[in-house]
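User: Hi! I have a protein structure encoded as tokens and I'd like to know what sequence might fold into it. I'm fairly new to this, so please keep things simple.
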């Protein structure tokens, strides 16, 4: 591992995406020791930025689904079923369940939800689970329904999972420990190749076990803040007590809660109904139950990441936090992050600011579904869709602000594109601002994430490009391919050999 070297002709972009003059950077033991102005006639050709922080991800799930039947590119239900059928025919083992993931009917010629009969028509002899891209919606074939009924005692005849069941399908067909570990390592490599060095993992039932194993084997290369489901609260506290989360890379983020569903599944809880359905979605907690979970987390000193997409869900969370803050005087800054918060309005942002709540946002959703004629417009109506995801309003209030992908897909360039090309011009961020949020530059005005290794002389966490990374805001990762990633004193992605041969990276 080469750790003593000079990077020649670098423009350094800090957390605010301010640019340095072209300079040479001298590294000792993988850490930036000092910088000096570019010597003589040299030409600047490298860019160095902090790594991306994907603040809402399901990295383990991403790795698992990478080996499953992927329906995300299908343009119709027929195409999705064809792909499923071809996938099954190509498989040699006939035993296990077939996962067909990431369908998105909002882009289909006829946008309807698949049914049990649809799947039975193409695969009848093996259990098949088809899951929507948001994860909040799933349909099973007849064979899979038998398994699900054995597990849960009941399952709807239509094949449609309840939201609870859709989110818990991996408890019916749990992947083996080996499958999970392989999947996580695969997903980690994919993340690093995109310049991601930090992830907030919204983990499922087996996440704690898998991450702990990988960390103990010394194979965790990026920083992970692990958020666990509420039923693992005791476990989280116990693991923390044992020192499991003391290492620099694996940290306990806290507890992750869902208070509503998704816009795509029409289960996000709205104040006014969806325009294309008779429902307004549904709150998953009554006030008393949600308040009880919040109190337990406060007592156990656990942060909470609260999924709240619809305006009714966001309002409920804020209202209960106001009640708690009233009882306690004030809540600790950053104790809660609102995850997604898509239908937040200005009044709610003002309340979030007073409560010192952070906002964890997914600008790739805007890029995918926020545009004219897109899913949000169909589901919410034009006016409400345009008011969704008001990034400029969040930015202007200096509310702690994070970007993440939710794995739909992981690609940070798509997120930058969503923030910079927001359908409402007055809510757009500049490419610099968007990149700054995505590397964590808006995370910590109050020492919120105080233990983070900040990009500064003496520490090192950096992604190397040979093109201006602001070009990523076009939404295309190939515009500025990642050449190398340096994190915690090591190249976790080695730069290509020709950079060493040509002396652009000079080994000393
Ligand atoms: Zn999520």
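Assistant: Happy to help. Inverse folding works backwards from shape to sequence: for each of the 508 positions I chose a residue that suits the local structure. Here it is:
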């Amino acid at each position: 591992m080469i750790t003593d070297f000079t990077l020649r002709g670098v423009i350094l972009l800090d957390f605010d995406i301010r640019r340095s003059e072209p300079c040479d950077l001298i590294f000792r033991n993988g850490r930036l020791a000092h910088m000096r102005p570019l010597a003589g006639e040299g030409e600047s050709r490298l860019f160095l930025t902090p790594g991306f922080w994907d603040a809402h991800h399901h990295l383990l799930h991403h790795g698992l689904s990478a080996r499953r039947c992927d329906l995300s590119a299908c343009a119709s239900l027929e195409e999705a079923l064809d792909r499923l059928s071809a996938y099954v025919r190509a498989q040699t083992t006939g035993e296990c369940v077939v996962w067909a993931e990431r369908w998105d009917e909002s882009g289909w010629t006829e946008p309807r939800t698949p049914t049990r009969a649809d799947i039975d028509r193409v695969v009848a002899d093996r259990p098949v689970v088809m899951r929507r891209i948001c994860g909040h919606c799933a349909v099973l074939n007849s064979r899979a329904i038998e398994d699900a009924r054995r597990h849960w005692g009941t399952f709807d005849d239509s094949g449609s999972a309840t939201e609870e069941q859709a989110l818990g399908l991996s408890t019916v067909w749990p992947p083996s420990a080996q499958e999970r570990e392989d999947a996580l390592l695969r997903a980690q490599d994919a993340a690093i190749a995109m310049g991601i060095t930090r992830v907030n993992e919204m983990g499922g039932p087996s996440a704690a076990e898998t991450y702990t194993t990988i960390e103990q084997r010394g194979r965790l290369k990026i920083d992970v803040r692990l958020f666990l489901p509420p039923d693992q609260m005791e476990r989280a506290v116990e693991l923390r007590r044992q020192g499991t989360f003391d290492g620099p890379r694996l940290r306990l983020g806290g507890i992750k809660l869902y208070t509503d569903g998704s816009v795509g599944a029409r289960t996000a809880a709205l104040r006014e109904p969806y325009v294309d359905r008779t429902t307004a979605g549904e709150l998953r907690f009554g006030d008393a139950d949600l308040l009880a979970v919040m109190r337990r987390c406060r007592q156990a000193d656990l942060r909470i990441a609260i999924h709240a997409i619809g305006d009714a869900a966001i309002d409920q969370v804020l209202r209960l936090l106001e009640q708690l803050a009233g009882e306690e005087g004030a809540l600790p800054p950053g104790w809660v992050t609102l995850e997604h918060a898509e239908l937040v309005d200005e009044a709610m942002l003002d309340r979030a600011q007073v409560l010192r709540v952070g906002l964890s946002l997914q600008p790739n959703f805007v890029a995918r579904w926020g545009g004219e004629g897109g899913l949000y417009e169909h589901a919410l109506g034009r006016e409400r869709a345009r008011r969704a995801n008001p990034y400029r309003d969040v930015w202007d209030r200096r509310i702690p602000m994070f970007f993440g992908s939710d794995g739909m897909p992981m690609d940070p360039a798509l997120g930058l594109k969503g923030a910079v090309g927001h359908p409402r011009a007055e809510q757009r961020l500049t490419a610099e601002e968007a990149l700054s949020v995505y590397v964590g530059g808006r995370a910590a005005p109050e020492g919120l994430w105080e233990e983070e290794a900040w990009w500064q002389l003496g520490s090192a966490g950096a992604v190397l490009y040979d093109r201006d990374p602001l070009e990523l805001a076009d939404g295309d990762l190939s515009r500025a391919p990642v050449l190398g990633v340096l994190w915690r004193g090591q190249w976790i992605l080695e730069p290509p050999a020709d950079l060493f041969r040509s002396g652009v990276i000079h080994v000393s």
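A useful reference point when you look it over: The radius of gyration is 23 Å. Feel free to ask if any position seems puzzling.
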